[in-house]
User: Fold this.
Amino acid sequence: MTEQSNITSRVRDAYDKSADQYESAGQIIFHPLGKMVADLLELKPGERVLDLGCGRGACLFPIAAQVGTDGFVLGIDQAPGMVDACGADIEARGLADRAQVRLGDAQNFTVDQPFDALSAGMVLFLLPEPQQALACAAAALRSGGRLAATTFPTENGRLAAGWESAEILAEVLSTYLPAGVDDPWRLVLGLNGPLVCEESTAAAVLAAGFTDVEIRHVPARSRFESIDDYLDWTWTVTPRMQWELVPPERRTEATDAARTALRKLAGSDGSLEFSCPTRTIRAVR
Assistant:
């Protein structure tokens, strides 16, 4: 298995296992960001939208609301658990007439007819070949179609200031990985890839066939009642890949070490403020 296919497999497995818990965690952070992506698309009633890496529908559901009963949104995700859970949510909300979800790889897909808009909320950085996903996205859009996406901003090869809790956790867990096991943190978060900075991100979007690229940094913030709440949440999102590489017999020790390291960020009441500055991308096909 190549390094790229191994990373893709790890991402798919982590999110597949997290599907049942993902929505409750996503309500804290990802749903507001999903609504922001939908708003960036400036949707009109009746438009057709493709949502890459739809997960539990953080972008999909606000998009469905904005395109209305005459519109349509198709979500694709590589994790079967996410597809099943999102599909059940669509049925439960009575939106099956305007929303569907299916298994698909954001790096390799085609569509039967072009879409008016495409969303990619917090997914491009998880892909070994984000530029390939952008090329597929451009091919899936009509001329004049819009792209809106979110990624993590970085500075000097690390997550941008504000993501201290994520960096602290990654550093702690990296010390518990068995000898010879590669730490997926930098690869998965695209810290060495084409999305590493604003300039390279814009270049990748332009190279895929888009124009009028606009990139902005926006603040986002949430709050966990305790450090343990935060650590529980990390099991439902990307850090799960690191957690699962820690030998089971050492996870209690690793959890204790992470809890200790994160105390410097906790408030006097034990809560943990979670700052997650985000990079938005908007472009036109």
